[in-house]
Design brief:
about 600 residues; alpha/beta; 8-stranded parallel barrel; 7-stranded antiparallel sheet; 24 strands; globular
């Protein structure tokens, strides 16, 4: 099954939080700490960390003599406002080392319990720890003139039969045992900060032999994250950094996973070089990485940032300097990130993305106050004015979050316009936007469509539930029809399309499943439609989109989708259309009372 097919299966199971463990548990209490997080710190640190060792004891001696301490990592994580650490020592290209005294022979194992010390230190500071596990034996000879980092003979003796752990099945069995060992070695009662496993891809042996089901049964408190493969039983899909987006920091344009699935983006802070310390003091691109952090937060995506720990655990000076800078930088705007979700998606909020005069950014919305919003301007406009679509929210006050100074604004035509802005931050100008709620949106609207996939009726696009969606069954042209119940004023159509496809088409086989050309008709009887009152093209952009029409009065509205963005070369997304929610606006927020339709 394709990864998109898997995702569809996940969404079908959305309500089954108590389902058998073989099924996806889209939302579960064990995930709450991660849903409340904004970022993690990814640490690749093993026997081959520069200068590199072929002896496990020599590596352990160098670590201890170098003054390694887990508290340093925890302190650096807190500087970048990370709520969790991913610890990767059992990594295919770091010598398959375990930084704990493993009783499962087959590769390097330390006598000192570095992992246990880290979990304890992190827990004392409210930071969680995920343990990285690889599925891949293919690098078992890398960096060696002869021999292997893996010892099949030792593992075979342990198992009492011959097992070649340099094969995928053999390695699957070997790594299965080490994963179980970690579960048993660090029980929840003693190590509550041990939060789960970060799995690098997948292994058929694990699936055939019920590894994930065993984790769910033995340690239901542990989360499971997967790198690049959307395995249904996992809590999280982690997307490894991709390039080619414009602007470059807007990584979520390349994310194909739909919320509320837990989504993570893992990327290197030193944007060049290896994921682990290779001996160099690489530069950190402040603008790129701050942009990634903010844009991910504005898309409800967790930032898993990789830093390159040296043998003694410390980060090269350029990374330390970045951490120190980010600490103070985020402190000033943390209100706009902590306890928020991405705006313009399934949680409501102002429209993100491409604004006026070259401006670009994201919006966030407070979980405990849906009328409180933040605009993050990562690329400033060419002038002193910023215009952002208001999504029906009546704005009452705008301030610069850093200074507290009031910002002049006006609101009309569905847009809030900030004026006279002269002090733009070099990385992220944050405006705090207070509103009195949404207005001018029709309720009680009945939706139907000319085509729908089984179990994905048009009514799902009007039920107020972003976990359900209308699927057009790969039919174009196709029409989505709105019945207002009686003749009412109509000003615009709002649409949240499903965020389960990229919006940046990086190849002929990875394109956007979003509305392209459309026509809008209105009718009083639902039979006679006349000529289109609006035709146009929607961009292949993430987040809420709007179709404004000349104000009119009618009972019925028809949005005809002529085609979608994906070409036939992308067989998965060609003609595919999925809509989470769609609505009819009766008037723009902030319209003078004399012009309101009630």
């Amino acid at each position: 099954m394709s990864r998109k097919g898997i995702l569809a299966a996940i969404i079908m199971l959305v309500g089954l939080v108590s389902a058998p463990t073989a099924s996806a548990e889209l939302q579960h209490p064990r995930q709450q700490w991660l849903r409340d997080s904004q970022a993690g710190l990814f640490l690749h640190w093993g026997m081959r960390t520069s200068p590199g060792y072929t002896s496990c004891s020599a590596w352990e001696s160098a670590v201890t003599n170098g003054g390694w301490t887990p508290q340093y990592w925890v302190n650096e994580a807190k500087k970048v406002h990370a709520q969790y650490l991913v610890f990767a020592s059992f990594h295919s290209r770091l010598g398959y080392a375990t930084a704990w005294p493993s009783k499962v022979p087959g590769s390097c194992s330390t006598k000192r319990d570095f992992l246990g010390e880290l979990i304890k230190a992190a827990g004392a500071q409210g930071v969680k720890v995920l343990v990285y596990m690889t599925d891949d034996p293919q690098w078992h000879q890398e960096g060696l003139s002869s021999g292997s980092w893996l010892n099949s003979s030792a593992y075979s003796a342990y198992k009492g039969r011959t097992v070649n752990i340099t094969t995928r099945d053999g390695f699957g069995e070997f790594s299965y045992d080490r994963i179980v060992e970690v579960m048993q070695r660090y029980p929840q009662a003693e190590y509550p900060a041990m939060a789960g496993f970060w799995i690098d891809n997948d292994n058929a042996y694990w699936e055939r032999n019920g590894l994930y089901e065993r984790i769910r049964r033995d340690r239901p408190d542990l989360t499971l994250s997967n790198n690049n493969e959307d395995t249904p039983i996992m809590d999280t899909i982690s997307n490894e950094q991709k390039t080619g987006m414009s602007p470059s920091y807007d990584y979520p344009q390349a994310v194909y996973t739909a919320a509320p699935r837990l989504i993570e983006a893992c990327y290197k802070l030193p944007s060049s070089g290896a994921w682990w310390y290779s001996g160099s003091n690489s530069q950190v691109d402040y603008r790129l990485n701050i942009g990634r952090y903010i844009t991910n937060s504005g898309s409800s995506v967790k930032s898993n940032m990789a830093e390159t720990a040296m043998v003694n655990g410390r980060f090269p000076s350029n990374q330390e300097a970045y951490n120190t800078f980010l600490n103070g930088y985020l402190d000033q705007i943390w209100e706009s990130l902590d306890g928020t979700e991405g705006g313009g998606y399934m949680y409501g909020g102002l429209k993100p993305g491409f604004w006026n005069d070259g401006a670009h950014g994201v919006t966030t919305i407070k979980k405990n106050n849906p009328n409180l919003h933040y605009i993050h301007v990562l690329t400033r406009p060419s002038g002193s004015t910023l215009r952002v679509r208001d999504n029906g929210y009546k704005v009452s006050r705008v301030t610069n979050l850093r200074t507290g100074a009031a910002v002049s604004f006006s609101q009309s035509g569905g847009t809030v316009t900030l004026t006279g802005v002269s002090n733009w931050d070099q990385y992220d100008t944050v405006f705090k936007v207070e509103t009195t709620g949404r207005e001018g949106i029709h309720s009680g609207v009945v939706l139907s469509a000319t085509a729908s996939a089984s179990g994905r009726a048009a009514s799902a696009a009007g039920d107020g539930n972003y976990l359900t969606y209308w699927d057009s069954n790969k039919t174009t042209p196709v029409s989505l029809n709105f019945d207002l119940g009686s003749a009412k004023r109509i000003q615009y159509v709002g649409i949240n399309q499903r965020e389960d496809s990229v919006s940046y088409a990086r190849s002929a086989t990875e394109q956007s499943a979003r509305i392209r050309n459309y026509r809008v008709f209105v009718s009083n009887d639902g039979t006679n439609w006349g000529s289109a009152v609006k035709t146009g093209t929607l961009p292949s952009h993430r987040g809420v989109q709007f179709i404004d029409i000349p104000a009119t009065t009618a009972r019925h509205v028809r949005v005809e989708i002529v085609n979608t963005h994906a070409a036939s070369s992308d067989s998965t997304r060609y003609k595919r259309l999925r809509v989470d929610e769609a609505w009819i606006g009766s008037a723009y927020a902030g319209m003078p009372s004399g012009q309101m339709p009630w």
